[in-house]
From TrEMBL:
Annotated family: Belongs to the HHIP family.
A GO cellular-component term linked to this record: extracellular region
Signal peptide: 1-33
The organism of origin for this protein: Astatotilapia calliptera
Full protein name: SRCR domain-containing protein
InterPro entries on file: 6-blade_b-propeller_TolB-like, Folate_rcpt-like, Glc/Sorbosone_DH, Quinoprot_gluc/sorb_DH_b-prop, SRCR, SRCR-like_dom_sf
Renumbered residue ranges of the record's region Disordered: 660-680
Length: 803
């Protein structure tokens, strides 16, 4: 039987209706736009000819529309002209609900704990009209979805009974059933637009794409068709990730012996940035920015490397050539950005030298054009193999100015952290080539700047829009370029510059500048009003309730936002960590996802060029990811005899939900609460053996709770790092259940007190082990977590294994 549990139901045909109603029950929760493939709706690339009402926004492309049209005409071949006229509108409307932007809700597909409906949920009045006019089409609709044999006896009975007919079809949510869902003003007011909460915060979601990184400071791509991305860690490693998410085990670059940094949280020194030559396929060079100590003197070093002749995924470490070194008077304010502009020149962003208030000299380093500190530099690194490391572009703004360094492109910057180049609108190219930077403030304000040639960005005279050094601020010759946006320290104390979204997958985000704050963890956005030139601010928050209940998506992230990134296709990411130390493996890369609208299927397809790999691939496993165990088709009604194993879709989230195929249900053996496999009968009662598990639940529930394992004569907890649904299933099977429904992380099911030891960490099971001790894991008692990361499990209590 195809059911939620894949357990055999021993019943007779007259009991099918209650079972059917159970399988078609609806979820009484919030409704959000979602298609039956568990993705957001879209605007089809061409207007639909059959389900025309969904041509602007829905869940069908032209191919799907044609398929539904074919099903409609196959059904209507059973009718004469009068029957066609009377029933065609009902059959068409019901079939076209697969194209509704609320298809997932109408088919009860939003809730992972309930099976999908065979037909969309109808409103009561509409169902009554349908029953009076065309009730005998029900069997044809069910036959159309492939359930003719299983529904045959049932439909013959309920087609004559109005109450039972509509109990079968009606969705109890009166506002969200068809056709009311089309006229619900609240639901449809902003349909297809970016979700906003009542305070105007834009609701977005995330997808985890890499983890276990040590302060990931930069992520770049090669723009060479491979869709690889390169991730730099503050320690001095750079790693290559392929388009499928796997990582090459050999680093692209290893400068850990040269890089100056430390493990203490907040150290601004280290490997800070990498940029690839814009013609990387032919000019196989990379440029890096890192801190170094030379004869006990701290410096910033910008170096050039050449790709290895033997491996496209490694730099030749012996090829390093120093482009530029700048002495740092203090250990902070190191800047740390390299990027190539659309003009082909290399831009270098250097901090003001550190300490507080730029105390160096009469006006500070930033206002002094004879020093490179506190500047944006522009140099030409082309054709330098047999000459100086770089030359000066002929149009650099201060080239002829006495005592000014010719490299200077802009000045008056404090400590710019993360800059980007706007790709431009994909249709109009509006904005192409603009350079935006976040500049970290001193005491009161953080700012975002639009970099222009020759611009003075005001520091230390100004901080944001306000005066910092009042004497310098009143100087009429300052002529500074004001920020496009500044925010006070109540919102955050260390801006991390971002990108203007120009990708394909999320059309609603086009033109939105997304950035963040390292200290507060706040995500923010700006959108330019092209008429006034002003930038409108909106905070970004994680989608609530059902908003992010899509496969692979999550709605939480680590606080410390280190950097933003753009992949080769223009999709946006940010890099964050829970522990801001160069040695802590707490770094995660998140892809930014808009759940309100996607591009139409096929529009954003990419075919990465092949990459020759030397070494091994390390496959990616997300720590968090939402998963739904439902096929994007209708679920069959159980019969009385056969057992079929459903296909499964792998997934995870803060709540990990996955239901693997289950065996035929057997009569369970009696079980005491909290006791499962792992007990041996001995004199005087039951005796535990090493590796026994239990679920500790504050509510006393036997099928869910904090996982505890018996080792060394006592119970201890298990950390949630790397713990997946496979590990959860090992626990549940020990306790007599068939499988795990969910893995609950971050002590959601209860946190042990300090008297309880932590026994296991980094547990990775394949799923077939008899105990967690047989899984790949850290040594017993060795861990780097707290009880705030105690893992919990929810087991499937409907199907119980007989051991």
């Amino acid at each position: 039987a195809m059911g939620r549990n894949a357990c055999v139901f021993h019943t007779s045909p007259h009991h099918l209706l209650p079972i059917l109603l159970l399988l078609l029950r609806t979820w009484w929760g919030s409704c959000h736009p979602q298609c039956l493939d568990y993705k957001p709706p879209f605007e089809p690339r061409q207007p639909l000819a059959f389900c025309k009402e969904y041509s602007k926004f829905g869940c069908c492309d032209v191919e799907k529309d044609e398929e539904i049209s074919g099903r409609f005409y196959n059904i209507m071949e059973n009718f004469d002209h009068s029957g066609y006229a009377a029933c065609g509108k009902y059959v068409r409307s019901i079939l076209c609900q697969e194209c509704s932007p609320y298809a997932a809700h109408l088919y009860d597909a939003e809730d992972a704990d309930t099976p999908m409906r065979a037909l969309p949920g109808l409103c009561g009045d509409y169902c009554s009209d349908y029953w009076r006019q065309c009730r005998y089409t029900l069997s044809l609709l069910l036959e159309d979805v492939g359930n003719s044999q299983q529904f045959a006896n049932l439909t013959a009975t309920i087609e004559e009974d109005h109450r039972r007919f509509c109990e079968f079809l009606v969705l109890k949510d009166k506002e969200y059933c068809y056709p009311s869902v089309l006229t619900n003003a609240e639901l449809n007011a902003n349909l297809g637009l970016l979700n906003e909460d009542p305070e105007g915060c834009l609701e977005l979601c995330l997808q985890e794409v890499a983890n276990g990184l040590r302060n990931p400071v930069a992520m770049i791509h090669a723009d060479d068709g491979t869709h690889r991305f390169f991730v730099a860690e503050q320690l001095g490693y750079v790693w290559v990730y392929l388009a499928n998410g796997s990582r090459i085990d050999r680093p692209f670059l290893n400068l850990t012996k040269a890089v100056l940094t430390s493990p203490w949280a907040g150290d601004e020194r280290g490997f800070l940035c990498i940029a690839l030559h814009p013609r990387f396929t032919t000019v196989r060079k990379a440029y890096v920015y890192y801190s170094v100590s030379v004869k006990k003197e701290e410096r910033i070093r910008i170096s050039e490397f050449t790709v290895s002749a033997h491996d496209d995924n490694q730099l030749d470490h012996s090829s390093e050539r120093t482009i530029l070194e700048v002495v740092e008077p203090a250990s902070n304010h190191n800047g740390g950005q390299l990027l190539f502009g659309h003009d082909g020149y290399l831009y270098i962003f250097i901090g003001d030298g550190g300490r507080a208030g730029d105390p160096f000299g009469k006006f500070g380093n930033s206002q002094n054009k004879s020093t490179l500190l506190g500047k944006v530099l522009r140099v030409d690194v082309d054709f330098n193999d047999n000459s100086a490391p770089y030359s000066i572009p002929s149009d650099n703004p201060f080239l002829g100015e006495k005592e000014a360094r010719p490299e200077v492109y802009a000045y008056g910057v404090r400590n710019m952290w993360r800059c980007s180049i706007d790709r431009g609108d994909p249709v109009t190219t509006e904005g192409r080539g603009r350079m935006l930077c976040g500049d970290v403030g001193q005491n009161k304000y953080e700012e975002v700047d639009l970099i222009v040639k020759g611009g003075n960005y005001g520091w230390r005279a100004k901080e944001g829009f306000s005066c910092y050094d009042r004497k310098l601020c009143q100087n009429s010759s300052l002529d500074d370029v004001l920020p496009i946006f500044a925010y006070p320290h109540k919102l955050g104390k260390s801006v991390t510059g971002g990108y203007i979204y120009r990708g394909c997958q999320m059309p609603n985000l086009n033109g939105l500048y997304i950035f963040g704050d390292f200290m507060s963890g706040r995500l923010m956005s700006l959108r330019e009003n092209v008429t006034t030139g002003e930038w409108q601010y909106n905070e970004i928050c994680m989608g609530r309730d059902q908003t992010c209940r899509f496969p692979k998506l999550i709605n939480s992230y680590y606080k410390y936002i280190i950097s933003f990134a753009e992949d080769e296709a223009g999709e946006l990411y940010f890099l964050a960590t829970g522990v801001p130390s160069a040695t802590a493996r707490g770094g995660v890369i998140y892809k930014i996802v808009d759940p309100s609208r996607r591009a139409p299927p096929g529009k954003c397809s990419i075919k990465p060029s092949p990459v020759k790999i030397k070494g091994k691939l390390i496959h990616f496993h997300p720590k968090e990811e939402y998963v739904i165990n439902k096929k994007p088709t209708t679920t069959a009604v159980p019969t009385t005899t056969t057992t079929t194993k459903p296909t499964t879709t792998k997934k995870k989230t803060r709540i990990v939900i996955k239901k693997p195929p289950m065996p035929t249900r057997k009569k369970p053996k009696p079980r005491g609460r909290g006791r499962g496999q792992g007990y041996k009968k001995a004199r005087g009662g039951w005796r535990l053996w090493v590796g026994s598990v239990r679920l500790v639940s504050a509510e006393g529930l036997p099928d869910r709770g904090r996982v505890e394992i018996f080792i060394r004569g006592q119970w201890g907890t298990v950390c949630d790092d790397l713990f997946t649904i496979k590990s959860g299933s090992v626990v549940c099977r020990q306790l007599g259940f068939s499988t795990a429904l969910a893995v609950m992380k971050r002590a959601v099911l209860g946190e042990a007190d300090d008297s309880v030891r932590i026994f296991l960490d980094d547990v990775e099971c394949e799923g077939g082990e008899r105990s967690l001790l047989e899984c790949k894991r850290s040594r017993v008692g060795k861990h780097n977590c707290s009880h705030a990361e105690d893992v919990g499990v929810i087991c499937d209590s409907d199907c119980i294994n007989d051991y």
